[in-house]
Design brief:
single chain; alpha/beta; Aminopeptidase; six-stranded mixed beta sheet; two-stranded parallel ribbon; 8 helices; 36% helix; binds zinc ion
Length: 340
């Protein structure tokens, strides 16, 4: 059983002892699926997620350069995302604010929220970060230079924008609302600062949601969902806070035909944006995050926080698996409940 709460999204393990302990204690579990995949397939008509378009949207973000807070690329990319959301959402909210980094530096932070079916009381929150890490601290070269973040930012944004377009084209029931939160300043954290030096944009939003008393039935966070051979196990905090949601999404992945990506192994506990959403605003929220289990890169893929996080590691098949799974989840949720 994993008792460690050692958390490592964007960071490295808190201490070496826990690293060894965590890996040792979790490896036993990782061979044992937490729950076997559902046998049945839920039939629901969904739009067809276009991975070519999503791939192009990652390339577009990368073309701005690293989207580091306080740089021209931050403003350019925010303006582009705003235009894209405007085309497909009913309402757009922009939070143009300042947050304080772990070293005390003042950082501009731009959160964008696109709302579909604003009047519906049943709602799903979809979120991802869009900023690039300012350092390549897991690389062997140019560690002080920012990364392009094709996967660790670009992929999540691209999938959510294409899902929003699909919903626009393929009428969603007006009884289900979708809120797309593209949050900034997730990856400006350092292990030697403090755990909550990460996810600053989401922390701001969770304390100051775009509408008063905001509520969603559940939330789904995407992080690093574009690399070849991605593996999405059952991340620990997601299981702890939102096990039902996690099972629902993994079951949807099975129904959509992507169980080879969404496995039922227990993943580590990742301090990511979903933790703030669960703890601060109490929306049960899960994390879909690539954890192929490489001990050398702290369970993440080898390109994590290196300059290899560029277009060369992006695979349309992974984008398709995640996008189609989200659409399956959304259109299943929109279906009227079966009468007993
Ligand atoms: Zn990161």
């Amino acid at each position: 059983m994993c008792v460690s709460r050692t958390s490592f999204k964007g960071a490295i393990y808190v201490c070496t002892f826990f690293t060894v302990f965590f890996i040792t204690s979790c490896n036993n579990n990782s061979n044992t699926p937490a729950k076997l995949p559902e046998e049945h397939t839920v039939k629901v008509n969904t739009p067809d997620f276009n991975a070519d378009v999503a791939y192009g949207d990652i390339a577009k973000q990368v073309s701005f350069g690293p989207r580091v807070p306080g740089t021209p690329a931050q403003k350019l990319c925010a303006a582009w995302m705003q235009e894209e959301l405007k085309k497909v959402c009913d309402t757009i909210y922009i939070q143009n604010v300042h947050v304080t980094a772990g070293d005390g530096k003042d950082l501009p932070c731009i959160n964008l929220i696109g709302v579909i079916n604003p009047k519906a009381s049943k709602r799903i929150l979809l979120l991802t970060h869009w900023d690039s890490r300012p350092w390549a601290d897991m690389d062997v070269a140019d560690q002080d230079k920012p990364i392009l973040a094709a996967d660790d930012a670009g992929s999540g944004v691209a999938v959510l924008l294409e899902v929003a377009r699909n919903i626009k084209e393929y009428k969603l029931s007006p009884t289900l609302g979708i809120d797309i939160l593209l949050e900034d300043v997730e990856d400006y954290g350092k292990n030697e600062w403090k755990e909550d030096s990460y996810c600053l944009g989401t922390q701001y939003w969770a304390h100051h949601p775009h509408v008063a008393n905001y509520k969603a039935d559940f939330g789904i966070l995407l992080d690093m969902v574009g690399a070849a051979n991605a593996q999405f196990p059952l991340e620990g905090y997601s299981t702890e806070y939102a096990s039902d949601v996690q099972q629902k999404v993994w079951s949807a992945a099975n129904s959509a035909g992507y169980s080879s990506y969404f496995n039922y192994n227990r993943g580590g506990y990742i301090t990511d944006d979903h933790v703030s959403v669960n703890r601060i605003i109490n929306i049960p929220t899960i994390d879909i995050i690539n954890l192929p289990g490489n001990p050398q890169s702290h369970e993440f893929a080898p390109h994590w926080h290196t300059h290899q996080d560029n277009m060369s590691i992006i695979d349309k098949n992974t984008l398709k698996a995640v996008g189609q799974t989200l659409l399956q989840t959304i259109y299943e949720t929109a279906q009227p409940a079966p009468t007993p």
